Amino acid sequence: MRSHISFSELKIWNECAYKHKLVYKDNIKEFLGNEHTAFGTAIHEVCEKSVLGEIDRSFNALNSCFNIKFLEEIKSLTEKNVELNKKLIKDMRTQACTLLPYIIPSLKEYFNEYEVFSAEEELYEVIKNSEKMYKGYIDLVLKTKDGKYHIIDWKTCSWGWGSKKKSDRMVTYQLTLYKHFFAEKHGIDPKNIETHFALLKRTAKSNNAEIFRVTSGPKKTENVLNLLDKAVYNINNNNHIKNRLSCTSGFGCEFYKTQHCR
Known about the structure:
Layout: E1 4-5, H1 7-15, H2 17-25, H3 35-51, H4 59-79, H5 86-99, H6 103-111, E2 114-126, E3 133-144, E4 149-157, H7 163-166, H8 169-186, E5 193-201, E6 209-214, H9 218-236
Parallel strand pairs: 1-3, 4-5
Antiparallel strand pairs: 2-3, 3-4, 5-6
Helix pairs in contact: 1-2, 3-4, 8-9
């Protein structure tokens, strides 16, 4: 039995408990990645190394870091026989050139003065009344002069998010869980922690790096912890009921009408 659960696992369980079984218990992986996941991984690499000062912030250094990681990811997908779009790959390399110079300046513009508390910080914290741990990685934590901590999750996207996605319960629950377990790990009052998404946009004509705050108060925290408890209980008790409503929904289940799920 897995000793931990992550947000991505919780999200899949919430979509469909049977899909969760296929992925996490039967270890069946239909989705191996694509150009978009390769782009996201490469951009995250640049974000982490630049905020930590592991590379300088000149355009050439940022672009070199991106291309090395991006092409490494593309090579890995090719070796897995994933069909790729060569034009999209070429376009993404050009789009990265436009995006990269805005990443670090967006932090300065949004937070003014700050210090980097951590990057890619691992959470591995006890879930109350459970034998499972919650596992996650926080992209970036900043501390501002007012003593507040700011949890930031980088999200690569095309042109941006609409208001519906920005307020989507399951999207924002990721930050709520990060805030809760980060507070427990460091013994920090949750009132002194704020959460933000940073959208890094490939095709936007302006506002290429958009940071916005997501509120995560006591009620929302209670709701997501209840969902987490429910997931852990059902996973532990091998309750794998199919959610037929998710088969053709916006989730785009990769197992739909395959040999694994009919």
